[in-house]
Structure formats: structure tokens, C-alpha cells
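Page 42, continued from yesterday. The earlier attempt failed because a stray header line got pasted into the input along with the sequence. Redoing it now with the clean sequence only.
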Amino acid sequence: MGRPRRRRGKGKGGDGSWILWLAAAVAAILAVKWLVELIVAHWLPALGVTIVLVAGATGALVFRYRALEARRQEWIRENARLEKVDRMSGGQFETLVEALLLREGFRKVHRVGGSGDGGVDVVGISPGGQPFVVQCKRWSKSVGAPEIRDLLGALHAHPGHRGVLVTTARFTVPAVKCAAGTDLVLIDRDQLATWLAGSFTLAPAPGPNGWPRLRRRSAPPPAEGELGFGGVLGD
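This time it went through. C-alpha cells are written below.
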């Protein structure tokens, strides 16, 4: 009995696939060459088509941005009442604060909230370039000094940022005293209602020594809520 004949293994490219790849490469080169020659021969119509395409793409992006902005503004209007905010979950409240910052013209705004957030729920950069970190507390009980100290500790991981603590409740007297002398911005229930109504802006204006102060809009916030900012609200 003779030995079984060895099957001859297929060498590299033995299946002929390289021929297909070569043909595709040649076809692509020829197509690009034809397209370049066509554009050179008819550069004016090609330029017109390019302008139309770029203008159309730009218009579509602008339209999409305006539609998203209109939707966000409508969502804020629908939820700009404390009774609605009181029914929100913690995550929904963070989304509302995120939307308010975007309304103020803040950039690079996004939520960080969740496990391992390091005590920071929302971050953003004001129109003037000041980075902010925001802690949101949709609470019914008052916010005390321990929460103020927690936010001050979280700021060590965000050097150069200004801290904001916004709550649907009130701040205790020890909490206000703890924030006094710091750059923290405390927004209590009354100030939140004013912010929702658009009566002031969180975006800071230049203050003494170049440090930003909060700018008040036409309607002043309720006197009862003045302590909500720990005395840092600018005139």
C-alpha cells in the first residue's frame, strides 16, 4: 500500500484573495483620479456644490442646537416650581441644576453624580472661565455643617473651582457659620425659587481682586433667603 499523498497547504494568498484586494485598490485609485480630474475640469460647479453641502450641514447643526435649547427651556419652565421640584428624584434634581447652568451660559456642563462622585454632582465652567463644582441635595430636612465640611473637603480634588451647594431645604445656622469666610455659594429653598424664576444669575461678574461675585438680576431675591448664600451674593 502506498503512502497517502500529503495535501499541499495553501500558501499565503493561495486562495486568490490578494487578486481581489489588488483589483479593489486599483479601482479606488482610478476612481480618485477620475474625481480629481472632474473637479479640476469643472471646479466652479464643484465649488458651488461644496458650499451648498457645507451650508446645509451647518444649518442642520444650528437647527438641531436651537431645537435642543428650546426643548431645554420648555422643560425648565415646566419644572420651575418648588412643588414640582419636591417630587423629583435626586437624579432629576441634578438634571434640573445642570439645565439651569446651561441656561446661564455655562460650558462643559455635565453630571458627575452617582457612586464614587467624590461629593460632586455637577461641574461646569462659567461664561467668564471660572470652573464650578455643584453639590445637589433634594432634601426635606435642613442641611447642616457636616455637609458644608464635606463639600469643602471635596474641593481639594478640584483646585481652582468654586463650590456651590444647592438644596430644596434650608441651611442650619451652624451650616451658614461654617460657610462664612469661604468661597462657597449656598443656595437654599428661597434662592432656588428665585433662580428658577430667572431673577438672578449664578454666572459671576468680576469683583474686587479679580475674584468673581454673583450677579443679581432685575428682581432681588426674597430677604428671608439672603442667608442662603452665606453672605456672598454680590450687589
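Notes: DSSP finds seven helices and seven strands in the chain.
Reminder to self: strip header lines before submitting.
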